[in-house]
Amino acid sequence: MIIKSSDYAISAVREDQYPQDNLPEIALAGRSNVGKSSLINSLLNRKNLARTSSQPGKTQTLNFYIVNQAFYLVDVPGYGYARVSKSQRAKFGEMIQDYLETRANLKGLIILVDARHEPTKDDIAMYNYAQYLNLPLLLVCTKIDKVKKNQVNKALANLNKTLDLSNENVTVLTYSSVKRLHVKELGDWIEQHLQ
Ligand code: GTP
Ligand code: MG
To answer: Which chain residues have CB less than 5 Å from ligand 2, an ion?
Structure first.
């Protein structure tokens, strides 16, 4: 995929705030701080379009970024952020579920996990929930630059132990926003799923 243009479009917490122009959407989900905003920036070749932070929980709304005037990338707030209140977390959950379960324009879901660690309970729950959504799924194993080359296969085998990767809807990709590893593959997957 060639990126010709990218821009922040809108933030939303409910349906009537979602974009109205009926373009396809690809959403990104994953634990807080896993690198969703960084992945968006690396794909779009922008330094700071999606706000990144070493402080977890920065993204608190569904943030829509328009790409090539043709589709939206949707940055979904990270789950598993302990420092927000329980009621706040429930509200996040509702907002995310509403979006993921009802949005007809949603064509695919990208779930990010941290290559350095085994999937957390939250990762497993999100992954299993995504299976139930029945959307094409790209599992991105990010921050792979932090994993020694000879440990990459072990990290992938670990993933396979906790997540059922056999579903034909699922593609697995190692990724690094910092090293820009597999940016092209990410773009290609997105392009293939916009129809
Ligand atoms: P929330 O918005 O809180 O949900 O976080 P997020 O998932 O958007 O994470 P974000 O992109 O803000 O990144 C969190 C931290 O991880 C930042 O300090 C990034 O610089 C770092 N980071 C993200 N991707 C990578 C990567 O591929 N490699 C390395 N080494 N660090 C990364
Ligand atoms: Mg973010």
So the answer is: 36-37, 59
Minimal-distance CA residue to ligand 1 atom 18: 54
Identify the CATH homologous superfamily for domain 6-193: P-loop containing nucleotide triphosphate hydrolases (3.40.50.300)
Confidence of residue 57 (pLDDT cuts 50, 70, 90): low
- Which mutation among 59, 177, 181, 186 tests ligand 1's pocket best, with the greatest number of atoms within 8 A of CB? 177
Report pTM: 0.93
Would you list the domain boundaries of the chain? 6-193
* pLDDT at residue 186 in the model: 98
Task: Give the residue ranges of DSSP H helices in 24-137.
Answer: 36-44, 86-102, 121-133
Distances from the Cα of 158 to the Cα of 31, 154, 161, angstroms: 18, 6, 5
pLDDT band at residue 18 using 50, 70 and 90 as cut-offs: very high
